């Protein structure tokens, strides 16, 4: 969990990190919340966004929803309501992410069968355990630079004690599998 004090830091963090959910105030110093939301949506960042603000006018709410907010809560609020809204958004996110396939380029990752198929060649290979988790994470976040720490947290867990070269080894295994099925991605 990151807590940032101004809109400039918030925007930078939203663009460089991967979040499942962002709680965003509109009236932030340096960059306002609407501008942050517009920017992250223009970059196709699909984190759930709950606007939490004192701005309670209908026009503000409509603006928030129009530019991509998933929910809008005005101050003063009860903490239990905020927690319920957070849980509801995360539940919606989890339901949406349970798709049978993820496609990126000429690759199709079958979630249920934990297999990877190249659309060009029709070749399929099994991917299991950490290879599958890494590949799924990368394919759900295409064209994004992801910090090693984020990968460790998401795939191995927050309290991981992974060796620094383990990630590189798994990425090497994944690349070999992608090459084996004839994907144009790594020729």
Largest sheet: 4 strands, antiparallel
Q: Assign an overall shape.
A: elongated
Kindly give the count of domains: 2
Following the backbone from N to C, one meets helices and strands in this order, namely: HEHEHEHEEEEHHH
CATH architecture of the largest domain: 3-Layer(aba) Sandwich
| CATH structural class of the largest domain | Alpha Beta
Strand order of the largest sheet: 4-5-6-7
| H/I helix tally | 7
Which strand-content bin applies to the residues?
A: 15-25%
**Sequence stretches where pLDDT stays below 50 over 5 or more residues:** none
Briefly note the CATH topology name of the largest domain.
Rossmann fold
| The CATH homology group name of the largest domain | Response regulator
Oligomer: single chain
> Average pLDDT across residues?
85
Q: Which structural class best describes the helix and strand composition? A: alpha/beta
Distance between the termini: 39 Å
Describe the 3D structure.
The protein has 187 residues and is an alpha/beta fold. It has helices at 7-16, 33-42, 58-66, 79-97, 129-140, 148-156, 164-180; strands at residues 21-24, 48-53, 71-74, 101-104, 107-110, 115-118, 124-126. It has a four-stranded antiparallel sheet, with helices on one face. α1 packs parallel to α2 (33-42) and α5 packs across α7. The two termini are 39 Å apart. The model has no long low-confidence stretch (mean pLDDT 85).
């Amino acid at each position: 969990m990151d807590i940032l004090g101004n809109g400039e830091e918030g925007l930078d963090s939203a663009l460089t990190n991967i979040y499942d959910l962002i709680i965003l105030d509109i009236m932030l110093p340096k960059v306002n919340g609407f501008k942050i939301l517009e920017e992250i949506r223009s970059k196709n960042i699909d984190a759930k966004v709950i606007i939490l603000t004192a701005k309670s006018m209908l026009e503000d709410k409509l603006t928030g929803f129009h530019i991509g907010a998933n929910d809008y809560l005005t101050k003063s609020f009860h903490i239990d309501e905020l927690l319920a809204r957070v849980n509801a958004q995360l539940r919606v996110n989890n339901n949406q992410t349970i798709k049978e396939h993820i496609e990126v380029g000429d690759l199709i990752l079958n979630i249920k069968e934990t297999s990877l198929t190249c659309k060009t060649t029709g070749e399929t290979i099994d991917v299991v355990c950490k290879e599958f988790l890494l590949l799924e994470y990368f394919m759900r976040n295409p064209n994004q630079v992801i910090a090693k720490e984020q990968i460790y947290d998401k795939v191995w867990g927050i309290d991981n004690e992974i060796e620094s070269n383990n990630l590189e080894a798994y990425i090497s295994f994944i690349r070999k599998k992608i090459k084996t099925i004839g994907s144009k991605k790594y020729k």
